Amino acid sequence: MNENQPLMLGIDSATSVCSVALVQGDKTIGAITKKMSRGQAEELLVMVDDVLKKANITPTNIDCVAVSVGPGSFTGLRIGLSAARGLALSISRPCIGVSTFEVTVGTIIADSENYKNILGQKKILIAIETRREDIYAQLFDENFLPLSNGAALHEDELVKIVGPYTEELVVVGDGAPRAIEMLKNNGINPAAINPNFEHSSAAVCEIAKNKYSKGMDVSPPKPLYLRPPEAKIPPPDSRAINTANTGAQTKL
Q1: Per CATH, which fold does 7-102+199-209 belong to?
Q2: What is the pTM of this model?
């Protein structure tokens, strides 16, 4: 273990997995990953505690907390960010946010030996499940440089961004099966990386490591929302609020 490298705690609950990792330099000291679409609020801090205890590390030994900021599940994002920001604040350490697209790229790079024969010189479409009609997607070149902005895309929009690269495309991410189906509906047949692909909190640390500097002062990370949440607060003059206020006055 390189003591000169920052000791980083990575948290990722933005997608269909909940993951915690303790990383220093190129070494993953401990990690736990559980597949779950709900229940992160009950599991996440227990997982953090387990990883730290098994490594005989106290929270104050941590140099930085890194967390996935999305896009992804609204609930999962809020839980992961709240846990990461709260922990970082309690030990007076920086909290660095990393996008889910960056995490996916980092996971591929970390396991490049398994992926190099599939990737070759292909363009990489990262697809993240939204559980709605659209899908979160971003296109990268063979050197993992972005060719498009991350966005919530419907089928016609997805086809448009991959248009020039239909013969040299590979899709990865927990939204890959549905993205591939969308593309096949339009005569595009991309290759797919492991359909059971899971994001890695160790990759969160790997990306954050390049953003970290000792003594840095950063604002707490905010969630990366590519579209508004389904539940919205009604405007002040809405009927729902007026009705509620009227009811409250009646009870008084």
Answers
A1: Nucleotidyltransferase; domain 5 (3.30.420)
A2: 0.81
